[in-house]
Amino acid sequence: MEGGPLLMIPGPIALSPEVLAASSAAPPSHTDPAFIEIFGRALRAMREVWRAPEGAVPLVVAGGGTLAMEVAVTNLVDPGQQALVIDTGVFSDRMAQILERRGAVVRRCRAPVGEAISPGALREALSRRAVHAVFLTQVDTSTGVRIDVPALAAIARGAGALVVVDGVCSVAAEVLDQDASGVDVVLTASQKAIGAPPGLALLVVSPRALAARRALLVPPPLSMDLASWIPIMEAYEAGRPSYFATPATGLVVALEVALRQLLQQGMPAIWARHARVASEVRAGLEILGMRRVPASSAVSAHTLSVMYPPEGTAGALVGAVAARGVAIAGGLHPQLRHDSVRVGHMGWVTTQPQLLQRTIRAVGEGLASLGHEADVDAACQAISG
Ligand SMILES: *Cc1c(COP(=O)(O)O)cnc(C)c1O
């Protein structure tokens, strides 16, 4: 949308010019040799971005983050099995809801709003009863809380549980090594830090998770079944066409460009840049009089900032900022809905300091229009050029 607002919401995000160009090409046939090559490259690139374990399978399925969550749940957990959800906000709640629909016996280890779960709390929860699978949300987009995936996954693995990470608001921005962390499924969606248009569910599934699918008594819905999709993904990776259900070809073309651009930069450089940009954006927002929701920087996401704006401005601020050409999001968590706002800073935009400054300026001028004056120039200077 030429001239549309700058998207600084937690997805969909602003696309790089290269991904944007790829998104506007005519969608190819799913059996076109050029498309087969592109799909294969995208799947191989996912292995690198995720740091997939040996023998894992990457999957790209039309849908989004919520579909990816349902794929993980319905392929790993049978009705009646025990699941533990580490609950740091709305998206962990959604995972629990999906598990309940599946008929799982769900327990939650719930953190107070703005806090993470400590390794000790997880150890304690796991000591009480055997658990088949533990579900973690690396960054919960409703609270801006980031958890320590390697520490929590190690404890869950030690207790013999499968580990699933909802990485929808973190993959391709927060430090992640699926193999080293022993995580069985890491899932995301195309429209967040991956930096492609919305419409794809992305998962990398470990051999242990594949074995759990084979052991299921109640199979998942056909279109969500790993058993339906894995032969298709293997065929495309091997350079052969294969059909189960039509892939979203145009989106896969855009995804491949987005993944290639990530790997050209290198994941460590991307992780470091997101950490730096997050602290700069928050420093700017704090100069404008905002306060962060997460309890400490150790548990603060690098992909978005969930902030309390000055007293009395939260209700009108999103609209006031939109009037200045920048889209930010309102509060999402029930306890934060009316007094917080969310500013996304992930993907291509983190390479564009002038756009980050434009965001800070739009927020500052929006606050000023609501009667809260602050030093907007000083706030913009928090962003290093
Ligand atoms: C956005 C988001 C989801 C849901 O993804 P959709 O593509 O909107 O279905 C799930 N989990 C987290 C952490 C998210 O940020």
Describe the protein's architecture and organization.
The chain has helices spanning 17-23, 33-50, 65-76, 90-102, 119-128, 149-158, 178-181, 207-215, 226-237, 249-265, 267-287, 314-322, 353-369, 376-380; strands at residues 6-7, 57-62, 82-87, 105-110, 133-137, 139-140, 145-146, 162-166, 185-189, 200-205, 291-292, 304-308, 326-327, 329-330, 341-344. It has 385 residues and is α/β, with parallel strands linked by helices. It has a seven-stranded mixed β-sheet, with helices on both faces. Strands 11-12-15-14 form a four-stranded antiparallel β-sheet, with helices on one face. The mean pLDDT is 97. Pyridoxal-5'-phosphate binds next to α3.
CATH topology descriptor of the largest domain: Aspartate Aminotransferase, domain 2
Strand content: 15-25%
Total domain units:
2
As an assembly, this protein is single chain
What is the helix fraction of residues, given as a range? 40-55%
Main-sheet strand order equals 2-10-9-8-5-3-4
Q: What is the CATH top level name of the largest domain? A: Alpha Beta
| CATH architectural name of the largest domain | 3-Layer(aba) Sandwich
> Helix and strand string, N-terminal first?
EHHEHEHEHEEEHEHEEHHHHEEHEEEHH
**Tally of helical runs:** 14
- Rg for CA atoms: 21 Å
Outline type? globular
Average pLDDT level: 97
CATH homology group of the largest domain: Type I PLP-dependent aspartate aminotransferase-like (Major domain)
Distance between the termini: 27 Å
Uncertain segments of ≥5 residues (pLDDT<50)?
A: none
